[in-house]
Amino acid sequence: MAKKLDPCRLRNFYAPVHITTLSNGLRVVTEESNSPLFCTSLFTKTGPRFETENNNGLAYFVEHLAYQGFTSMNSYALQDVIRRGGTKMSAFTARDHQVFSAVGLKESLKLNISLLAQIICQIDLTETMIESQKQKMCFEAIENDNNSRMVMFDYLHQTAFQGTPLAQTVMGLSSNFCRFDIRDICSYFYHNYRPHRMLLATSGGVSHGAVVEYAENYFSVVKESDTKVINYGPKRYTGSSIVYRNDALPVAHVAIAVEAPGYNSPEYLPLLLATCLNDSWERTQGGSDRHGSFLARASSTSSLCEKFESFYIAYHDVGLWGVYFVGTNDLDDMVYNIQKDWMNTCTSIQKTDLERASQVLKMKLAKNIEGVVKSSYDIGLQMMYTSSRRSLSEIYQDLSSITVERLRDVTFKYLYDKCPVVAAVGPIETLPDYNGIRSGMYWLRL
């Protein structure tokens, strides 16, 4: 019989986090370990949530420019420096944050921090480079339009948060990025890449003192802003649907979700636990049909879909909680089983289901900090959203304190008789209309 993880024993394997605020307001967070590698990530509060309809896509455009050269070196010289230093650079833009990361041996700490600082201070903004990236983004936009899953999740945000910045896509409209110029980019840098909106998160075999020293040297040129108020904009949720029927596609991509609290909410962890009640399943995975999840059993025995996965997209103060699935002919049956399982969770969840989901979530949380790259991202995300870093043992303790009654109450609050959002792309002839899906969000009970 497998032994349960003891949160007290986890403390011995969890390095403490050191936090320092530089003279200009930039926060530096470091988790030291015995790893020969380290990962430094520069988090910024930028993205579609902080953009207008006219400049939507600028953060993603900056991501494209990030590693194309600086004023002190062209792209060829930059690539040579990265190769000689054994560094791997990457970038990622979400709807409410952007991350620039550098991974390497501890000997390259000074180089990596200097490269991240130059993205903010010395990025190449020549007309030639800007026009070159516009061409690349045009081709990328075409590729994204052919990605049904990505299009569907963009639709999900557009219908859930219609009329708000969260409805905007990360890439933005082609009509936007085709007219971006140096003045637009410089203005965006001035207002968004400021110390109070940035965070330097490091995990690996480097000391906190060294990280602070190099960060102070290279980021000191980034001046503190006069105003430190961050406007997140409205977060209005609207129960609605966007569906795009295209019978030429081989499968349909469908998502059904409800409004959920943000990362800062005390109800975040119970709802995250609720996603693990069904977790995910796909037809190609091995094993029998004896799944612990009701939805996985129904999908595998009745061939309801090709795959499904539960998701919880949490932002600073709002989120979307639901199920995404890929199917063909039985979309109505799949939606029925999803809602049946949701109503069971709201009203009659059992202790065995809670224990199973808890073990699944513990494994996922442990995997989220596996290695310096994931650990660095976890540090940055927690610090950006909560201004603190909770250890795995602390989260496990909170997870163990969630009772069946607590989980039932939270899911009832956010699921039962709530207006869902629905997004679908592909051959969706058998998908129920919105009114039919809405009526499945409650049971008539005596």
TrEMBL record:
<dbReference type="InterPro" id="IPR050361">
    <property type="entry name" value="MPP/UQCRC_Complex"/>
</dbReference>
<dbReference type="InterPro" id="IPR007863">
    <property type="entry name" value="Peptidase_M16_C"/>
</dbReference>
<dbReference type="Pfam" id="PF05193">
    <property type="entry name" value="Peptidase_M16_C"/>
</dbReference>
<dbReference type="Pfam" id="PF00675">
    <property type="entry name" value="Peptidase_M16"/>
</dbReference>
<keyword id="KW-0378">Hydrolase</keyword>
<feature type="domain" description="Peptidase M16 N-terminal">
    <location>
        <begin position="27"/>
        <end position="172"/>
    </location>
</feature>
<dbReference type="GO" id="GO:0046872">
    <property type="term" value="F:metal ion binding"/>
</dbReference>
<dbReference type="GO" id="GO:0005739">
    <property type="term" value="C:mitochondrion"/>
</dbReference>
<protein>
    <submittedName>
        <fullName>(African queen) hypothetical protein</fullName>
    </submittedName>
</protein>
<feature type="domain" description="Peptidase M16 C-terminal">
    <location>
        <begin position="182"/>
        <end position="359"/>
    </location>
</feature>
<dbReference type="GO" id="GO:0004222">
    <property type="term" value="F:metalloendopeptidase activity"/>
</dbReference>
<keyword id="KW-0479">Metal-binding</keyword>
<keyword id="KW-0862">Zinc</keyword>
<keyword id="KW-0645">Protease</keyword>
<keyword id="KW-0496">Mitochondrion</keyword>
<dbReference type="InterPro" id="IPR011249">
    <property type="entry name" value="Metalloenz_LuxS/M16"/>
</dbReference>
<dbReference type="GO" id="GO:0006627">
    <property type="term" value="P:protein processing involved in protein targeting to mitochondrion"/>
</dbReference>
<dbReference type="InterPro" id="IPR011765">
    <property type="entry name" value="Pept_M16_N"/>
</dbReference>
<keyword id="KW-0482">Metalloprotease</keyword>
